[in-house]
Specification:
The protein contains 16 helices and four strands. By secondary structure, it is of the alpha+beta class. The chain folds into two domains: about 290 residues, no CATH class; about 100 residues, no CATH class. Strands 1, 2, 3 and 4 form a four-stranded antiparallel β-sheet that branches. The radius of gyration is 38 Å and the shape is rod-shaped.
């Protein structure tokens, strides 16, 4: 005969505290790796964001100086006076020289008119026919000029001259960019150039992201299992409630300490055609921000004005202090039932749900994420249609982070455990 479902249920009931204890150990064990990975990710991400900042790329004068110098050098190298090119340019130079000589001849005769000395100068100039001889030598002068322009040494000199003038103009027009932090990051990772450093850092960041995603999934599975235990079993012992509360506390700490939302707006690729040359910029970060609740509260309390100070205190009270006191009050009530008549304990166990607003904050954060994501996507799409001559591809890489999912798990488990506690108190 097969064992009855009741026997299986009773066995599961006996294993219930062990399962919750395993879940608690699992959360604590995973949190160690999650915090360590998040610290590494945060450091790498800050370095990647700094090196990818648009101020070092599309908005960087030094970058454009290098690009323009390269284009000028290439155009001069491609400049060859042969065939029709030489004939066209020869005609233009010849016409220019004839015009200059004729203007000079006319001006000379006009200046000499009106005096005896000038009269004799004009007669001598006409007798010697200086300007006529200059015009006869225009073809020779033209060929010499063309040969000069076609000479490799002169091309190099022209490139150097134009490059120096370009650098001089840029330095006198635009302010210089501070590369101190930029160079410090490259030195820290033992790189001398930005592009190879970014490839290396992005690869490292991708590996850490995959690891973090794996641990996050396991955390959510553990939270679902604990929630299932709370829902399925009618009664929960004091020890089991204490273990569940510790699981909630662990999720709360993770949720408060780790970033919840990552706002990342960037130009993934932009192509500009300039003087027949294709110029590409990739992964140009426009805006990035990622902070945890505790970091936001810290900034509001230390760096903001009175308005931000008030908001920071409210967030600290309703998202940190209230949930903590509620967990402590719930455990105290389980182990000391006579505290049910205590006004403070009664308030935090039975009445503080609408004041702690953990569930409301989860919804608010999620809606904020949707709002930020929608606004960024819309604005970036408008940026793509700024100019028909520019091929621009923008991306919104904003995402919900581990802190959000951990805080959501805390809010859900806390709600279930509080309801279970109230039912047990009513039944008892």
């Amino acid at each position: 005969m097969f064992p009855s479902p009741l026997i299986h249920f009773n066995k599961m009931k006996a294993l219930k505290p062990i399962l919750i204890l395993i879940a608690l150990i699992g959360v604590l064990y995973l949190s160690f790796f999650i915090f360590r990975i998040n610290l590494q990710k945060q450091t790498l991400k800050e370095d990647v964001i700094e090196l990818s900042n648009i101020k070092y790329g599309l908005f960087n004068v030094d970058e454009w100086k290098s690009i323009m110098t390269s284009i000028i050098a290439k155009k001069i190298e491609e400049f060859e006076l042969k065939g029709s090119n030489r004939a066209d340019l020869k005609k233009k130079i010849s016409d220019f020289l004839y015009k200059v000589i004729e203007e000079f001849e006319q001006k000379t005769f006009e200046q000499n008119t009106g005096s005896i000395e000038g009269f004799f100068k004009n007669k001598i100039t006409g007798f010697v026919d200086i300007f006529g001889k200059l015009k006869q030598n225009v073809p020779t002068f033209t060929n010499q000029i063309l040969d000069f322009l076609n000479d490799t040494k002169n091309k190099k000199a022209l490139k150097n001259y134009l490059s120096s003038k370009l650098n001089e103009y840029a330095d006198n027009t635009f302010s210089k960019l501070d590369y101190t932090y930029h160079n410090a990051i490259l030195s820290k990772h033992h790189f001398s150039e930005r592009k190879p450093a970014l490839i290396y850092l992005n690869n490292q960041l991708e590996e850490l992201t995959l690891q973090s995603a794996k641990y996050k999934m396991i955390l959510l599975i553990i939270a679902a299992c604990v929630a299932l235990i709370i829902i399925v079993f009618k009664n929960i012992s004091q020890l089991e409630f204490l273990l569940i509360t510790l699981v909630c506390l662990a999720f709360l700490i993770i949720g408060l300490s780790l970033p919840m939302i990552e706002i990342d707006a960037r130009v993934s690729e932009i192509k500009i055609s300039l003087l027949g040359q294709q110029i590409n910029f990739q992964d140009q970060v426009l805006y990035y921000k990622s902070k945890s609740i505790l970091q936001v509260v810290s900034l509001m309390l230390t760096q903001g004005g009175y308005d931000l100070l008030v908001v920071g205190l409210l967030v600290l009270a309703f998202s940190v202090i209230f949930p903590l006191v509620k967990l402590i009050s719930s455990v105290s009530l389980v182990y000391f039932p006579h505290l049910q008549n205590n006004k403070v304990i009664h308030f935090f166990v039975h009445k503080s749900g609408k004041w702690s607003m953990a569930d409301v904050m989860v919804v608010a954060i999620f809606m904020s994420y949707l709002g930020f994501s929608g606004i960024l996507t819309e604005q970036l799409q408008q940026l793509e249609h700024l100019s028909p001559g520019i091929d621009l591809l923008s991306t919104n890489q904003s995402s919900l982070q581990t802190g959000f999912f951990a805080f959501t798990a805390f809010a859900f488990l806390s709600l279930l455990s509080t309801n279970k506690l109230k039912k047990n108190l009513v039944n008892s």
